[in-house]
Amino acid sequence: MSFRIKIIALILLVSIVPYAFLMSYFGNTLRQRYYDNTLHEMQTQLSLNVEQIQQYLENIKRDMQFIGALDVMNDIYSLDVDRRISNLLEQKKVELELLGDFYVVDKNDSIIASSNSEKIFQKIDKEPFYSVDIISNINNEKIALLELEFSLKNFTKFFDNNDGQIYYIVDDGKPLFKSSSFEHFIVVRKALAFDDKIEIVLEKNQEDFLNELAHYEKLFILALLLGAIIIGWSAFILINKLIRPILELSHNVEEITKTKDYSKNIEVQGKDEIAKLAQAFKQMLSGIVKALKENELLNKEIEETQKEVVFTMGAIGESRSKETGNHVKRVAEYSKLLALFYGLSEDEAEMLKQASPMHDIGKIAIPDAVLNKPGRFNDDERKIMDTHAQIGYEMLKASNRPLLLAAATVAYEHHEKWDGTGYPRKLAGEEIHIYGRITALADVFDALGSDRVYKKAWDDERIFNLFKEQRAQHFDPKLVDLFFENLDQFLKIRDTFKDT
Amino acid sequence: MKNKIILTIIFSSITLFGAEFAIVADKNFQLDSLNAKQTKDIFLMKRQFVKGVKVVPVNASATSKQRDVFEKMFLKMPRHRLTKYWTKMHFQGVRPPIVQASSKSIQLFVKNVEGALGYVPKSEIDATVKVLYEF
Lengths: 500, 135
Fold this sequence. Notes:
The structure holds two protein chains of two kinds. By secondary structure, chain A is α+β, with helices and mostly antiparallel strands. Chain A has helices spanning 3-68, 84-96, 206-259, 273-320, 325-342, 346-355, 368-371, 379-397, 402-413, 434-448, 460-470, 477-485, 487-496; strands spanning 100-105, 111-114, 130-135, 142-150, 165-171, 174-176, 185-191, 198-205. The longest helix of chain A is centred in the first third of the chain and has 66 residues, at 3-68. Chain A is rod-shaped and about 195 Å long. Chain B has helices spanning 2-17, 36-43, 65-75, 79-90, 103-112, and strands spanning 21-26, 49-50, 53-54, 56-60, 98-100, 116-121, 129-134. Chain B has a single domain, classed as 3-Layer(aba) Sandwich (D-Maltodextrin-Binding Protein, domain 2), CATH 3.40.190.10. The interface between A and B is medium-sized, with 12 and 15 residues.
């Protein structure tokens, strides 16, 4: 996991988690408040209804008291033969839309007048819902009771029942006039003031409540998600801005490690710790670059010195045998060219070029009398002369430098011949190192084309004829072929490094 | 229908023969007779006692013929004067006599209420009441 993702995850953890907790707490509070509000609203509604009902009852009572005090109640004395009281009660019943009846009951529990004419002169058989005394205004005697038989169903006209809510009455624990019921509901109840056994109950369908709430919940969740996205987004932007220098630094370091290009510039922005780190890294890098440059310079110096030493050594060998200095240079160039045509790498060809000048270094150990003797050598002199290959090898082999080792090989094997008739070891064919084979050809080609103390320079035709003759005898046939194929280039080198 | 015929007979007989109505009370009423002045005062609610006995006058209903005859022939006051009178009395805390609708109810009332007095046509008097005054 990258640094960026880690930081973002951390920020999200410390911001979104508390945010979510807080929001869900608010959500719950909201829900609870919504529920409380609904309940409160229902209670208010029910209270109003109950008040209405109680008002209605009060009105009936007051009406009864009023009726009980009327003059016409004196008709009780005449047993209401003119039905004036009954008519009045009937009228009142209609006016109040009453379910139930009024009765005027005398001291013997006999009904004198009633809004229900069938009951007149019968005995009262029910406990009245409400009763008032009738007192005659003639003699202030209590002459009868005005009683009310009342059905609780009267209350239902105050009930506002619909799909979402129902009212009903609970009388002493028994529900009455309950028109329907809900599976899940919220309920509030309130007892009537005059009789607390009678309760009015309001039930509301909880589905409706939940549906309404669900709408708010959707909005709430949407807001929550939106908030989370905004937090996440701003965290992302903020983090990007904060850790961008780190990422840039990290990216640069990675790049430098990969390409090894230590000169790459690192920009430093700001003054915070990251900038300090970048600055430190930059300084370190410039230190490395400086050290590298110095190192490179030293290496070059060493290499150059080495080359010069080798070349000079070769030149020393040459100078002793009075052969002109340019012989060494030409052999070097021919050798490199042949090596390249043969298919050696540029590095190896270059090394051969530097090593080949030393092919005759062994000659420094040959006595001047032999080395510079004009004319042909006798057998002893030839033997002494031929030791220069071995000597050159012995001089150089102790080194562990590749260049000097190559020079040792060249010195040792440049007089070997393809057919195995050369010296000092009479190697044949590919037993002879390629360096030896190449230098042999290059040396002979140049030697034949130059004046020597013991001979004049050969013309080209004679040289080429010799080469053709000696192909696969003295020389590697492949090298001879390559030589002839690219003859113009060799001749060009000979022209460039002419003896003066 | 029957009532109507009776009323017609009553109305015509009043004009012809005079004394066709009687003031009645319960059989057990302590007095046996009243004079015109006493009766008039009782029905105008000027007195509630006659010789120490409490009396309660009972009117016939306002729309009945016998009330009309009672006011014109006995009280000798037309309706508008009576209205004015009762309005005045109202402010002194005196209300007009209670009303019973029929002769039957008047006599039932008289029988059941101590000291109650009512007027009924002589022809409708039953055995439960006694006559105190005739006109």
